[in-house]
Structures are given as structure tokens and as C-alpha cells.
Amino acid sequence: MNKNMVSTAQQNYLNRLRAHRFIVWFLRVAILAGFLLLWEYTAAKGIIDSFIFCCPSRIANCFMEMTRDGSIFLHIGITLYETVVSFLLVTLTGILAAVLLWCSRKCSEVLDPYLVVLNSLPKSALAPLLIVWLGANRTTIIVAGMSVAIFGSILSLYTSFTTVDEEKIKLIYTLHGGRFHALTKVVLPSSVPSIISNMKVNIGLCLVGVIIGEFLAARNGLGYLIIYSSQVFKMDWLLMSIVLLCIMAMALYALIGGLEKLYLKKYSANYVKE
Amino acid sequence: MESILEFHHINYAYHTLEGETKALSDITFSVADGEFVAIVGPSGCGKSTLLSLICGLLEPESGWIHLNGKPLNDNPTCIGYMLQHDHLFEWRTVYHNVLLGLEIQHKLSNKTRQKARDLLDTYGLGAFSDSRPSQLSGGMRQRAALVRTLVLDPDILLLDEPFSALDYQTRLTVGDDIGQILRNEKKTAILVTHDLSEAVSLADRIFVLTKRPATLQTCVPVTFDLAEDTPMNRRNAPEFKHYFNLLWKELNHDE
Questions:
Q1: Among candidates B72, B57, B65, B61, which has minimal Cα distance to B21?
Q2: In this structure, are A215 and A106 located in the same domain?
Q3: Band of the pLDDT at A271, cuts 50, 70, 90?
Q4: For residue A3, is pLDDT > 70?
Q5: Which residues pair with B156 in a beta bridge?
Q6: Contact: B91, A189; criterion CB under 8 Å
Q7: Within an 8 Å CB–CB cutoff, is residue A181 touching chain B?
Q8: Strand B62-67 to B3-16 pairing
Q9: What are the DSSP E strand ranges found in A94-225?
Q10: How far is B156 from chain A (nearest CA, A)?
Q11: Residue A81 and residue A15 in one domain
Q12: Which residues from chain A sit within 8 angstroms of residue B146, using beta carbons?
């Protein structure tokens, strides 16, 4: 459509929409800025104890220092690496296990109570066990990361596989296809959206598991930094690590969000095209 | 004419924890090559079960079914099945949806690909080959589903209320459209429907089933004295009302 041909009513609508978006963004930034300023101010004036609560400027300074000597990149890199590895393993084994369960109804019925129990078990309880079994090393941390997400992942993927429209599977049979075709032509492709949304959940859970693992069995990584700094009361380290974790979680989530958008753009006509 | 399909004393029942539901009881009939048969009956009487049996999705409890004189297992006869909904996959383009059956049966070749293109062109979908199914109208979607079935070159076509999900106007045009296509291709077809006028306008013979457990109540041969035997012309012919009333009476036999 020709942009010059927009009617006044349409223009008003667009303006209203733009104003709305601006206000939302403005308020988001304002809340963060206001919070940081208030924190800095109260800490500087001694209203809150800056030894316990620290203050934004010291956190920033601490970050600059650790950037200069490069140590922060090591910690971020290790946590990121462990999270990504456990996430990839969870996604892969989750899909494989769900496929196997889907293939054999008997198998899924037999295993169902075990999966439910393992899924509801607080995974942090497993971490000490993993240390004893696997040693205080990176494998333990990656397995701890996996343990948090894997069972829920299998259950939700299996559910999405089984809720595929039966008639669509019947279509495959009417075309003289077998169960394998039903899997590859219908079940897997139609489950891609739920696989992606499952990945969104998993990436966050893997990060949780990796931090739990690092609390107990690491000599570097952000989780280690948090537990170490809390023991020696280096609050600037501790809060900086938490902020970095926030940013990391956001970035990883956004990455998968981007993947989802890419998929929708390619395969869904409902996605608005230019 | 030689009969392509034979049903011989077929019985079928569904089993659940609550008990057994008899669906079909002692059904015997045969369908000639090139014939268009419609099956009507009260809803839930087991019409679709009949088609599932022919397609081999279900096994009869007793009796036998012969296709081209041979039992169903290892039968080379190709059966096409059209379901109530088109079930076009959104993650495939229209063209790739049409290829689905060929992919499954490992029949993809340049020749069959060209055939798919030709069929899409013939049925007015050529321009939409690369569209997503959701960009098509209901009637076009159903035509695409028909092409998906026809590209496999089936010897016999099973239609399970394929028009019932469409709105009335589309349903008339698509029904007539597809009826015409099948007649031109000289396909044997079995149409299951609860729409009597659809049955009369399309079929050569109409089987009337009773309530569950379904038995074959009667068989109505349909002949129209028309120069051009199209579904639309049939609807306008004087015999149409006669057949419609006849079927109506048969269906409401017990009441």
C-alpha cells in the first residue's frame, strides 16, 4: 500500500499505537533507572548499610576491574558453556525419549509413574549425590543442569506428541503409511512449536541446575563466584554475578525467541508478512 | 461389468471396557468397476467403519472383503481415501502437501511430480502451488486434498463425508465439482454421506443402512434421463425429488 495514501483516522490510530509503545518503553527504563538511583543515593547517605547492600557504582567498578584482568570472562564463559551443553543434551535426549515413549504405548504406561516422581523431585537434592558419584568436576555440573530440566521436558514433549490430531495420523494410514511415517510426517513437524516452547523453559531450568552444581562442585563460574563472595562478604562480587546471571538468562531466552520467530516467519501464514 | 469390490457377510464390533458395540451386521454387497456408490444412513450407524474396513484400517470380525477378486492383505489395488477434513499440513506448501502420499509410498519421480503439477493446474490450483494451505478457501483446500488422493492414481476412491465441513454454498459447488472430476476420470468411488440430495446428485447406486448395528436395508439404483449427466442438471431434473422422497421414506422406515 502507498504510505502517502493513509487516511487521517488510520494515521491517528498509528500515532496512538506509537505513543502507547513509547510510554511502555519509557516506563520500563524509568523503573530501572529510578531503582538504581534510589539505591545509590540511600547507600551514599548511609540510609542503608552499604556494606551489606552494596551500591550500583561499586558493582559497576567491580565489573570494570574484573573485565580489565579478564577473570570475569572466564567465569561467564564457563557457566555459559556448561549451560549450553546441558541444554543441548536435554533437548536431544528429551526429544529422543519422547519419541521412544510415543512409539511404545506399553513402555510409556510402564514408565509414567517413574517420570512423574522424578519430575516432582527437588533436583537440588540430587546434586550432593552426583558429586559423590561423578566427582567434583564439570561433568557433575552439566548433569546437575540436565537433571533439573530433563524429566519435565520428556513429559511435556510426550504429551504434545500424543495430543496430535488423530485424524491427521489416520490420513497417513489412508495413504498407506506406517507408524514411522506418522512420526516423521505428522507428529514431529506439528510438534515443532511445542518443542521450541519447551526449549524456552529448558534453557532457564538448565541455568538453575548449573548454578546449583557450581555452588557445590566448582572452582570457577558465576555460581562459584556467588557462593565464594557470600562467604567472604564481597557483596559487590555477589551482586555483580547475579546481575550477570540475569543478563545471561535474558540473552539465552532471547536467542530461542529469535529461533521461534524465524520458524513462524517461514512456516506460518498467520505471521504477518510485509 | 466386473465387480471391483466385494463385501461378503461382514460383521464388525467396537470393544470398550463398558462392553461391545455392534457396528455392522452381515453386510454383503459388491461395487462394479467405474461405479459411483453412495452410502447413506442415520448418523453413527457405522458408515465410516465400512470405509475403514475397505481401506484395511480395521479388520472385520467375520466375513471377507475382496478387491479385484483378491483379499485385502497384499492387494496391489490402490485405494484413495478422502477424509471429512482436508488435513492439509500447514508446515508444507500446497504442492508439498499434494506430494505427501507419493513420498510415503516412495513413488516420487520427475514423472509423478509433473503429474502433481498438472493435476493442480487442471483443478485451478496451479497459481497456489507455493502457498500455505491457510491461504486457500475451504473449497480450494478440499480440491487440494482430492489432488493429493488422485495423484496416487487410486483404482477406487473412498469419500468420507468430504464436503460436510464446508459451508452450504461451497459445498454445492465443490461437491458438484468433485463429482464431475471423478466421473471424467472414470473412478470407482464410494461416498459416505448423510446428505440425501448429495447422494442423489452424485451416485449411480445408493445403499441405505439401518440404525446400529447397521444392516443393508435397501439398494436404490439411480438413473437420470439426461443429455448431460452432471450433478447440477440432476438437481434440476424432475426425477430428483422422486429419489429424494424414496430415500427419505427408507431412512424413516421404522418410525
A1: B61
A2: yes
A3: very low
A4: no
A5: B79, B188
A6: yes
A7: yes
A8: antiparallel
A9: none
A10: 12
A11: no
A12: none
In this structure, CATH architecture of domain B3-87+155-251 = 3-Layer(aba) Sandwich (3.40)
HSE value, Cβ hemisphere, 13 Å, CA-based, for A81 = 10
Q: Is the pTM of this model over 0.95?
A: no
Please tell me which residue of chain A has the smallest CA distance to B145: A171
Spatial distance between the Cα atoms of A165 and B232, rounded to a whole number of angstroms: 35
Helix axes A138-162, A105-120, angle to 10 degrees: 130
> Do A175 and B134 count as a contact with CB atoms less than 8 A apart?
no
Indicate whether A183 and A224 sit together in one domain: yes
pLDDT 10s digits, B178-207: 788 788 878 899 999 888 888 998 899 999
Please identify, among A14, A37, A52, the residue that sits at the C-terminal boundary of a domain.
A52
Q: Hunting for cell 536431544 — which residue is that?
A: A92
Are B87 and A175 inside 8 Å of each other by CB? no
Mutation choice for A interface testing from B67, B78, B82, B87 by most A CBs within 10 A: B87
Which residues form the domain of A94? 56-266
Residue of A165, A176, A183 to mutate, testing the B interface (most B Cβ within 10 Å of its Cβ): A176
| B135 → closest Cβ in A170, A175, A269 | A269
Non-local (6+) Cβ contacts of B43 within 8 A are B194
* Domains contained in chain A, number: 2
Would you say residue A208 lies in a domain? yes
A123: left (phi > 0), else alpha (psi -120 to 50), else beta? alpha
Cα-only R_g, chain A: 24
| Residue A180 at interface with chain B, using a CB cutoff of 8 Å | no
Domain locations in chain B?
Answer: 3-87+155-251
d(CA A20, CA A15): 9
Q: Determine the angle formed by the axes of helices A71-103 and A138-162, rounding to 10 degrees.
A: 40
Contact A186 B81 (CB under 8 A): no
Measured in degrees and rounded to the nearest 5, phi and psi for residue A250 equal -65, -45
The ipTM is 0.86
Q: How many CB pairs under 8 A join A and B?
A: 54
**In terms of domains, do A48 and A110 share one?**
no
pLDDT value, residue A91: 96
